[in-house]
Amino acid sequence: MSLPDALTQTGEASLPRHVAIIMDGNGRWAKERGKMRVFGHKAGVKAVRNTVSFAVKLKLEALTVFAFSSENWRRPEGEVNALMELFFTVLGSEIKRLHKNNVRLKIIGDLSRFSDRLRKKIAQAEALTENNSGLQLNVAANYGGRWDITQASRALALKVQQGTLAVDDIDEALLSQHICMSELAPVDLLIRTGGDCRISNFLLWQLAYAELYFTPLLWPDFDDAAFSEAVASFVRRERRFGCTGEQIRELISGQAQSTV
Question: What CA–CA distance (Å, rounded) separates 143 from 137?
Answer without folding.
Answer: 15
